[in-house]
Design brief:
Rossmann fold; two-stranded antiparallel ribbon
């Protein structure tokens, strides 16, 4: 795979251009996927908000971490079970129903920004936000691709196996990321792939 070194600022600029070039959609869903704690999915998604607004697009930030299942379901097989983390932690149905389906051309545009507080382990009771036409949802998280979530642009932050092992804070979760790589191959599914072995010096895959 060929990668072009790119500064974080230029990466944000290029992604902003890519998002604003999407046409034929009333509202836009962008998925930013990467290993939790080892890739800067949150920072990248946050950095896109202001440039998109300057370009005339309302931008709504959503974290998949606010759409986790209750602890009783996530930890049914223990708190450090990699298979559970891969298949059972994220409430995919809620993300479709509350975030992505409302963005469809026939959708209401009413998006729920959060559903579940994983720290307090209870519903956030957040109110829905009306996203105007031309608005963009920036959703970041792990294991977002290959599960039927509809994104207009998919961005994957990729780590080499050595960097993944070095940087993932939850070593017990490594088999989950390895399984994701083998079963889904998120880099092959993504519109944009960024190598982030060194987060201060990313590189963009050039097909």
């Amino acid at each position: 795979m060929r990668y072009r070194p790119i500064s974080p600022a230029l990466l944000v600029s290029e992604l902003t251009e890519r998002i604003t070039a999407i046409t034929g959609r009333r509202r836009i869903a962008v998925g930013i996927d990467g290993a939790a704690g080892a890739t800067e999915t949150t920072e990248l998604a946050d950095a896109l908000v202001d440039p998109l607004r300057v370009a005339g697009h309302a931008a709504l930030r959503i974290s998949a971490n606010d759409f986790l299942r209750p602890a009783s379901l996530r930890f049914e097989r223990g708190k450090e079970d990699p298979d559970s983390r891969y298949t059972d932690w994220l409430d995919l149905g809620a993300l479709r129903r509350e975030v992505l389906d409302p963005l469809a051309d026939d959708g209401s545009g009413l998006v729920l920004p959060s559903l579940w507080d994983p720290v307090r382990d209870r519903a956030t009771r957040a109110e829905r936000v009306e996203l105007p036409e031309g608005g963009v949802v920036l959703l970041d998280g792990e294991f977002l691709f290959g599960a039927g979530l509809a994104f207009d642009l998919s961005v994957h932050l990729w780590l080499s196996p050595a960097a993944l092992e070095r940087r993932v804070p939850d070593a017990w979760a490594l088999p989950a990321y390895e399984r994701y790589e083998q079963e889904v191959d998120p880099a092959a599914l993504s519109d944009v792939v960024i190598r982030v072995d060194d987060p201060k010096h990313p590189a963009r895959f050039e097909p």
